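Question (not urgent): is this output format expected?
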Amino acid sequence: MNGDDRSSQDMAPVRVTLKVFGGLRPLRDSPFEEHALPPDSTIEDLWASLEPRAPQFVGKLREGIESGYLHVLVNGRNAVFLDGPVTKLKDGDTIAVLPPIGGG
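Got this back:
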């Protein structure tokens, strides 16, 4: 692989799947969405990309995350234990937003 091949690969968009559950679900058209982001994008970059089209969703999302009510998982791992909102996303990642699960 020469240097040109590497740089063109680095410039490819990062394609991720966003899964939304719980109270935020009614604010989206689908529970599963595909998004293409620039290379080196983070979770926060994903939220920022959604904000112009879905400000109510992103506002409630950020509020829920800040209050600790909503959890963000990247490939099944809680983002709190990664790098939080600045967790870098990789091509093929799945980001799930869900409320805590409880029961009795």
